[in-house]
């Protein structure tokens, strides 16, 4: 039996103005926030979610695409929904994600192209691994 998703988030990684500027230097219309855009203007592969990671036993999830962001999400209890927490700037296509058990950092595999084909290319990016520290709430200092 096939499992069905509990939540679907449409346009989770829209293409931002920075991505369009890097792809097109002429004055062309920006893609709309709902994900509808002219295919000749930008690569739609940049908005595809290519990596998802969760932290076992918590309400934290992360998703990555080629739009220059790794997005962290809060999963609300009792199937009420998923809310975006914040975005981490990261250039290139995010091909792999992992969250540390401690929740203190996120590891992302980044490349010039998507891992499942050559649907787009960001030549200015170097293939590699990025470790980004995250702090989800303010830590209290002992006085």
UniProtKB/TrEMBL annotation:
It comes from the Eukaryota. One of its GO terms (cellular component) is small-subunit processome. InterPro entries: Rrp9-like, WD40/YVTN_repeat-like_dom_sf, WD40_repeat_dom_sf. Gene3D superfamilies: YVTN repeat-like/Quinoprotein amine dehydrogenase. Residues 13-42 are annotated as: Disordered. Coiled coil: none annotated. This is Uncharacterized protein. It comes from Arundo donax (Giant reed).
């Amino acid at each position: 039996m096939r499992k069905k998703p509990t939540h679907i988030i449409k346009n989770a990684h829209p293409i931002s103005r920075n991505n369009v500027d890097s792809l097109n230097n002429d004055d062309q219309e920006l893609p709309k926030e709902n994900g509808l855009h002219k295919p000749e203007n930008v690569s739609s592969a940049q908005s595809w979610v290519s990596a998802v990671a969760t932290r076992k036993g918590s309400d934290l999830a992360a998703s990555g695409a080629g739009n220059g962001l790794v997005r962290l999400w809060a999963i609300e209890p009792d199937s009420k929904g998923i809310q975006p927490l914040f975005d981490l700037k990261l250039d290139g296509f995010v091909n792999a994600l992992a969250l540390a058990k401690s929740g203190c950092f996120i590891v992302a595999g980044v490349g010039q192209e998507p891992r499942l084909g050559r649907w787009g290319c960001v030549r200015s990016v170097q293939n590699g691994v990025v470790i980004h520290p995250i702090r989800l709430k303010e830590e209290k200092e002992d006085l």
